[in-house]
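Here comes a specimen:
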Amino acid sequence: MSIKQYILILLFISSTIFGVKPKYSIKTKANVTDLIFELNKLYVSTDNGEICVYGIPSKKLLKTYIFPNIKDFIGDIIAPKIYDIDKIKAKNIIISVSQGKHGFSNVYITKNGESNLIISDIKNKLMIKKVKFISENNILLGLLSNEIVLYDIRNKKEIYRKQISAYTFSDIVLNKAKTKLVTADESGIIHIIDVKTGKSIKELSGNNVDNIYQIDFKRNIIVCGGQDRRFSVYNISTKKSYYLNSSFLIYSVGLSPSGKYAGFYCNEDNDVQIINTSTKSIISTLKGHEACLTKILFIADNKIFTAAQENIIYYWEI
């Protein structure tokens, strides 16, 4: 064995046992709920009614969108928690779903710096958890009742509403072409849905036996994790799947753009395990967060942003 090979092995062992440290961090005003990265900008939603836009790698705060306060159940005026955000590619258009009155949700569309309410909490009485752009005029809503709704923004009407199952909703994610939707719920079953019609294409099951908290879908790879402490990987091309056991509830997962690498929240120390999805081998362990993770966002196969229920974002290179 050459000296170079020996050093590489030592570096690999060190990164998996002792963990990788972040390259840098970004302090935010409130706990982070969601992240989007595009064109050297990081869009950050918080539980304090704000979407902040940071330049990358400068970390400079470029813009802050502030959403109206609401009344909570006991009548106090509070900033709304933003549950989910999405963005039209290469356009300054953001969609967001946020906390509303009486447990219902508000949906805002932000164009060129101005935010407009398009779905009202009291008027529409929808408990929306997730929102995704299908096109500039159509959005997909994931409801707590485990229904998906394709909604026409211009005409303010539902194109369809489909009940996925009787189980409580967890998460949705789209493929890159926005033609397929993957949903997860407390049953542990993954549903693949045709976006245009809302009809079920396929169900994936057998790996998770309890509530799935989060999923991701890149290329032909689907990953998910949940209450049963199982991190599951499905390859829909080869029809092969497996799961890895974790020592703690898996609240967050993420996939690299190629689907080659995945990350998952792996223990009570709030670490993130990075693995090769084909070989199941551990690539590294990311250490630094002090709260439960909310987002693992790969911006390249070796570049990752992570966020948790705290006011800090970490950037890593593996």
